[in-house]
Amino acid sequence: MQHLFFFISRLNGWLMVFLISLLAVQLPNVSAAHPMPNSVMLLTIHANRINAELQIPLAELQSAWGHAVNDSSARLVERLGPQLRTYLQKHIRPQSSDGRFWTVSVGELTVHESQNPINGVYRELTAQVQMMPRRDHPAGAMMCGSLR
Predict the structure, then answer these.
(1) Which of 26, 65, 100, 140 would suit a FRET pair with 134, their CA atoms being 20 to 30 Å apart?
(2) What gap in Å lies between CA 49 and CA 37, rounded to an integer?
(3) What does pTM read for this prediction?
(4) Cα separation, 27 vs 90, whole angstroms
(5) Chain segment 92-143, per-residue pLDDT in tens
(6) Partner residues linked to 96 by β-bridges
(7) How far apart are CA 133 and CA 11, in angstroms?
């Protein structure tokens, strides 16, 4: 009986080594095959305002906004700049802790495109945004925000 357990544990050990080896060889291919692009918001905090740089994948923006921005990104800012700014202003809603909304202005918009063998073509909208408390708002008030 003792020899049987030794044989089973040895067989399980070799099976485990084989499965781990197989997983180790295949895992990089599986994990790199499905990249998940994300939106990024980089904030710079000043005494009287917050500057933000938004990086939004065009595929995600297309799904959310309903316009073919990823399918037809050539001269996107020239064609849809005012509508993009309005969309972003409508969905970026910083709010002070007392419930008052801040002023949001969307500045420069640019489209970046890159290509690699794993992801294919990747397009991203970069937007420069400035958020300021309204003039009747105390400068030191706390802010909470919403990005929808």
Answers:
(1) 65
(2) 28
(3) 0.67
(4) 41
(5) 999 988 889 999 999 999 999 888 787 788 899 999 999 999 876 555 555 5
(6) 143
(7) 68
